Amino acid sequence: MLRNLSAFFAGGLFGAGLLVSGMTNTRKVQGWLDIFGDWDPTLAFVLTGAIIPMAITWNIAARRARSVLGEPLPSKPSTQIDRNLVIGSLMFGAGWGLVGLCPGPAVASIGWGGVGGVAFLLSMLAGMYVAPAFRHRFNAMAAALS
């Protein structure tokens, strides 16, 4: 029960942070990405503000085996740059640039995003569902070419 309450609180805090910071405003996000046009640098403060607590959290987590609630902590993510990372990053960036939403803000804005927000969320979920099959197929083709 404590785990679910903590997740609910953390998710609500994260969603509120996305809303207050402007990350759910697609025009603001696209303005941040439009460096050759009407560039809006204000999201640099949001992104920088996200790096600081995450760096502190990773530092603390490196010295612990379990979370505050007693759950095992996930292993450290890979630092290897491979084909899957590059392709995934390109797809994420293309979707973020075209629509102005990434997964967190898309879920946070579902209540007021209108038909476009719902279409994006459903498309994102469909992509997440089919991505493992595509990744498996691409990896098999790459292995056959090597």
Describe this structure in words.
The chain is built from 6 helices and no strands. It is mostly helical and 146 residues long. Helix 2 packs across helix 4. It is globular, with a radius of gyration of 18 Å. The termini are far apart.
Q: So what's the overall shape?
A: globular
Main β-sheet, in a few words? none
- Helix-strand makeup class: mainly alpha
Report helical residue fraction: 55-70%
Q: Could you tell me the radius of gyration in angstroms? A: 18 Å
- Could you spell the SSE succession in H and E letters? HHHHHH
Report the mean per-residue pLDDT as an integer: 85
Put simply, the count of helices is 6
Low-confidence stretches: none
Strand content: under 5%
Q: How far apart are the termini?
A: 50 Å
What is the number of strand segments?
0
Short description:
The chain is built from six helices and no strands.
Write the layout of secondary structure elements.
Elements: H1 2-21, H2 26-33, H3 43-61, H4 83-99, H5 103-108, H6 114-145
Observed structural traits:
146 residues, mainly alpha, globular
